[in-house]
């Protein structure tokens, strides 16, 4: 059984198009993430949701919009695609229970990654 | 903010030789550190993590790492390399803001027969 799955695995499209990448996890985790890995393999966090609440929103163009219909799904919509958007996009999840005042923070949580979506913009 | 630096973007070892991958961290709070491995065309997989319970951490596939506060290091080692260890290795630190991992630039390991 796949723990974190992403579709599609490959996505080739023209500049200016709008596309979506879907992510699903069956681990029962509360937190999900989107990362971008560039051609030099550098990994950068883009967004994170905890129980459908946006908790991390890095400096990303507003052409990128995450959507979490439920805590098992986190989709990434990209409008007006540009050449520089070409990369591998990874979804991940971690147990990360919702933060409550006074409780220990889940800094030690392991993140579980999907297989990646290779986006090529022509 | 926390960050990690991986020294050496590429390491080449002979099969059976020691694998040593270097990672130094910068953190204003006690760090939690991770090593992940990425095999070709796959996602990242946790090798091991330091959560302050023990300074020598053992992971999967024969890897281990030692946390040295005095040197701000968390180097990854494996006594005897196998061909299947060829992959990209990432060191990461858990940000003070709970959920965020900051990754190093990665080290590519190639194993020579």
What can you tell me about this protein's structure?
The complex is a heterodimer of chains A (122) and B (113). Chain A is mainly beta and 122 residues long. Chain A has strands at residues 4-7, 10-13, 19-25, 31-37, 43-50, 53-57, 64-70, 73-78, 87-94, 112-113, 117-121. In chain A, strands 2, 4, 5, 6, 9, 10 and 11 form a seven-stranded mixed sheet that branches. In chain A, strands 1-3-8-7 form a four-stranded antiparallel sheet, with no helix packed on it. The radius of gyration of chain A is 14 Å and the shape is globular. The termini of chain A are far apart. Chain B is an all-beta fold and 113 residues long. Chain B has strands spanning 3-7, 10-14, 19-26, 33-38, 44-50, 56-58, 64-68, 73-78, 87-94, 101-103, 107-112. The A-B interface holds A 4, 31, 33, 40-45, 48, 50, 55-56, 90, 92, 94, 96, 99, 105-116 and B 32, 34, 36, 38, 41-46, 49, 51, 88, 90, 94-103, 105-106, 108.
Summarize this structure briefly.
The complex is a heterodimer of chains A (122) and B (113). Chain A is an all-beta fold and 122 residues long.
Distance between the termini of chain A: 34 Å
Which chain pair has the greatest contact?
A-B, 30 and 27 residues
Topology of chain A as a string of helices (H) and strands (E): EEEEEEEEEEE
- What does the radius of gyration of chain B come to? 13 Å
Could you tell me the radius of gyration of chain A in angstroms? 14 Å
Q: What is the approximate shape of chain B?
A: globular
Backbone structural class of chain A: mainly beta
Give the ordered list of helices and strands of chain B.
Answer: EEEEEEEEEEE
Counting DSSP E segments of at least 2 residues, the number of strands of chain B comes to 11
Helix content of chain A: under 10%
- The dominant shape of chain A is globular
Name the beta content range of chain B.
over 45%
Largest sheet of chain A: 7 strands, mixed
Q: What are its keywords?
A:
heterodimer, A: mainly beta, four-stranded antiparallel β-sheet, B: 113 residues, mainly beta, six-stranded mixed β-sheet, 11 strands, globular
């Amino acid at each position: 059984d796949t723990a974190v799955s992403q579709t599609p695995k490959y996505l080739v499209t023209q500049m200016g198009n709008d596309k979506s990448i879907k992510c699903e996890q069956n681990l029962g985790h509360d937190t999900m993430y989107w990362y971008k890995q560039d051609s030099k393999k550098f990994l950068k966090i883009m967004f994170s949701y905890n129980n459908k609440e946006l908790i991390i929103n890095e400096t990303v163009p507003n052409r990128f919009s995450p959507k979490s219909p439920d805590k098992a799904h986190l989709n990434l919509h990209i409008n007006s695609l540009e050449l520089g958007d070409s990369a591998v996009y990874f979804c991940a999840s971690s147990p990360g229970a919702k933060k409550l005042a006074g409780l220990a923070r889940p800094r030690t949580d392991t993140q579980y990654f999907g297989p990646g979506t290779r986006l090529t913009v022509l | 903010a926390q960050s990690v630096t991986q020294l050496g973007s590429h390491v080449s070892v002979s099969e059976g030789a020691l694998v040593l991958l270097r990672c130094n961290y910068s953190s204003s709070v006690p760090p939690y550190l991770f090593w992940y491995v990425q095999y070709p065309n796959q996602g990242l997989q946790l090798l091991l993590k330091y959560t302050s319970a023990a300074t020598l951490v053992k992971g999967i596939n024969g890897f281990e790492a030692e946390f040295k506060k005095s040197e701000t290091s968390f180097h990854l080692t494996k006594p005897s390399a196998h061909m299947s260890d060829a992959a990209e290795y990432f060191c990461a630190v858990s940000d003070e803001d709970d959920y965020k991992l900051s990754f190093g630039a990665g080290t590519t390991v190639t194993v020579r027969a």
